[in-house]
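User: For a benchmark we're assembling, each entry needs the component sequences followed by a predicted structure for the full assembly. Here are entry 17's components. Please fill in the structure.
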Amino acid sequence: MGYAWLFFSPASKRVAALGRRQGEEATRDQLAALLKISGDTPHSAYRKKQIGFINTTDCLLSCVYCFNNGGATRNYLHPDIAINVLNEFTADGDFDQLVVKFFGGEPTLNMELIQKVVGFLEDRGVPASYHIVTAGYVAKRDIEWMVEKRFVFTISLDGDHDVQRFQRPLAVAAEGLMSPEHSLAYIAGAGASCKVRMTVTNVNVDRLPQHVAYLHNLGAEIIHIEPVTLAGRATHGVGRPNAEYFSQKLLEAIDEGARLGVQVINSSYMNLLQQEGHYCSAGKDHIVVGARGEISLCYEVADECAPYASRMLVGQYSHQTRKIEYHATTGACNAQHYLSPACVTCISASACGGGCPSRNLADTGDIYNQGGYFCQITREVFPSVLIRIAVAAGILPEFNHHQGDNHETHAPTYQDTHRQ
Amino acid sequence: MKRTPQPTKTHTGSKAAEHQKRQSPGIAVDIESCVSKAGIGVKNPRSASPVMRDLDCQN
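Assistant: Structure for entry 17:
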């Protein structure tokens, strides 16, 4: 029998496949039973706090799209500031796990900070996990040390050698450092947790599936693919692929990933299993410490020069009090949720959460308005992802992806939720 | 000849799906159990992978 309906419950995180007639005739109670919708919202007892450090604004690269203009300035976060902020942020002890992220610029240029933060938390027995987002030009001894400390690595790699050297050229000599490709191969070979972060422009969009295969050959098992954010250097130069074409290539990359055993992440569906209706944790037990002690809600707004600093910078470390001084008016980021009337009937709404606040600001000037570009990607990709999950689960037959992606979505309406 | 006892068959995998199909108008599955097979990476606090467990933003 050919299935014609795919039902999705954001509450129970289940999908159900029904034939054409069954789907049209199914009662609300039947669908609720099938999808196991109980009305109870499960809450995780796991309490997490997150703190990110912009180790430095300095960088070895001069990426053509860098939203932070990395390398244009050379501010380095002093370890004493990081330790004092950590002390204050963790003082209540009201968490099960502290997630510490090191970001830049190139964070490994400030290894002293990384080692002092890790040492501080280890000495106090704080349950912590460590993440680093790096360009991958790193000294081998530093990678070995981080692997030993069970770091989770994000390596920025945009595809094969030609793409990488065009989009992410070195600004200085990298003598004695491993290349990003070697770093990835070493980290993956050592069994450490890592993902590759791939930024997509008009330059590398055409061969997205091939780039996934290339990175898989280097050892990547998780690849996070996002279109370039039009901020910083990306406001001129490389262009952003149109939403429809990006979506098509992303789905091809997912199919290639499934074939190779690679998991492909994209923001249009990465919150599929979440129920908060928020895009990210900005403003919720999560702060980012800038290289000069700025306290921000977001990695993309690291200092007062950022175009939307007034919305994201919520405080400043004080050298006099050695504490954070919060601004009288704080950012509005923690109120992020979908507000548009069109979102009410969108099947993707619970996962989308209104989109990335920083990207919203860059695209539309409005923290709550995602604009057309990312909304279109989400609406194109999200239903196709549900179809792929149903196929992988064996409840939908194999299909021709080019035909299978021609779906219509139909979010619940008042009539749907009240039919008997 | 002594026969080796066979394990009791249970409704698992496709048999469970067939059973469910007879009892209800369609078949449903938990998304969490199928995402990786589909090549999909999602944030999941219960994941064994710290990448997925702590996935938070586009970076």
